[in-house]
Amino acid sequence: MSSRDNRTGRVARLSLLIAVAMIFSYVEAIIPYNPGIPGIKLGLANLVTVLALYLMGPKEAATVNFIRVIISGLLFNGAFAAVYALAGAALSLAGMVLLKKTGLFSITGVSMAGGVLHNLGQLIVASLIIEDLKMFFYFPVLLFSGIVAGIAIGIASALLEDRLRKSLRL
Amino acid sequence: MFKRFFTKADIVLLVILVAAGLATSVFLALSGDAGSKVIIESDGKLYATYRLDQNISVEVKSKNGTNTVVIENGRVDVTQGSCRNQVCVEHATISRSGESIVCLPNRLLVKIEGEGGDGPDVISG
User: Fold this and answer.
1) B113 CA to chain A: closest CA distance, Å?
2) Cα–Cα distance between B21 and A141 in angstroms, integer?
3) pLDDT averaged over every residue in chain B
4) H-helix or E-strand spanning residue A31
5) Binary contact (B5, A158; C-beta < 8 A)
6) What is the ipTM of this complex?
7) B23 in helix, strand or coil?
8) Of B13, B115, B122, the CB nearest to A134
9) Closest Cα in chain A, distance from residue B59 (Å)
10) Number of domains in chain A
């Protein structure tokens, strides 16, 4: 393959991942499941972020993440929510990249840390905007939900990684 | 099967995170004991403050009239008022920080301040 084909292929794969992430965001936005506590959700779209990180790399994962958050923010959740989500996504991805680089953690562990950091990032932004540290009363709830969601996403990613590597010819 | 998804470092990280979560839960549970305060103002001046988690019945007397304020199981209710319109008595009980019951004729204000029972409305993302 020439470098031009590579570039095209990369754009195509990135677009594909963004499209899938958008669908996940949409599915999650329309499923009326409510565990009774706000802020707790699976974060299906993070599955795509984790996979993008492992299949393509940090830069690509950041691209997919950024575009996904902006577009889904505008489409489903409102621009204001996108600010929260962006902070969570940025912190989460940074943490996942670092953990992955150590080589000690499996995809599940990386995703778990990502889930926790995602919630933490949002909480930080929320308390900055609301200027109220009482928000951190909410920290344990978000921590545990981040752990559970992160592990679930991590296991799904582990199952999908090899298959996708083959089918996307990465 | 288990080894396929978790490494040792994963488990260590999980334990650390869970421990951090439990530690903050315990810390918050202990520090949250002070809880919310019930503030009673009469005639524009502070009359008394009570903890929301105590059970007590208070008769508030002023030159305008009397009201009975009952704090029970984390809820505050005005059960009796010498006022004519009885708006304060008919008002629903309050339990969350920022809520208040007012008796205008008697110039009485009962409000809840402080943390607890007042989580964020929405966390999105």
Assistant:
1) 13
2) 8
3) 83
4) none
5) yes
6) 0.75
7) helix
8) B115
9) 33
10) 1
B65-72/B56-62 β-pairing: antiparallel
Residues of A with CB under 8 A from a CB of B: 38-39, 77-78, 81, 84-85, 88, 99, 102, 104-109, 112-113, 116, 118, 122-123, 126, 130, 134-135, 137-140, 142-144, 147, 151, 154-155, 158
pTM: 0.65
- Which residue from B13, B25, B121 is facing A112, i.e. has the nearest CB? B13
CB contact under 8 A, A137 and B119: yes
Q: Is B35-113 assigned to CATH 2.60.320.10?
A: yes
For residue B118, pLDDT over 60 is answered with no
Residue B116: φ, ψ to 5°: 90, 140
Q: Nearest CA to CA, how far is A6 from chain B (Å)?
A: 31
Domain extent, residue A141, equals 3-167
**What sign does the dihedral A161-A166-A167-A169 (CA atoms) show?**
positive
Which strands, in side-by-side order, build the sheet including B56-62? B56-62, B65-72, B75-81
CATH number of the domain at A158, please.
Answer: 1.10.1760.20
Task: Give B71-94 pLDDT, tens digit per residue.
Answer: 998 889 999 999 888 989 999 898
- For chain B, give every domain's residue range: 2-32, 35-113
8 Å CB contact of B14 and A137: no
% chain B with pLDDT above 90: 25
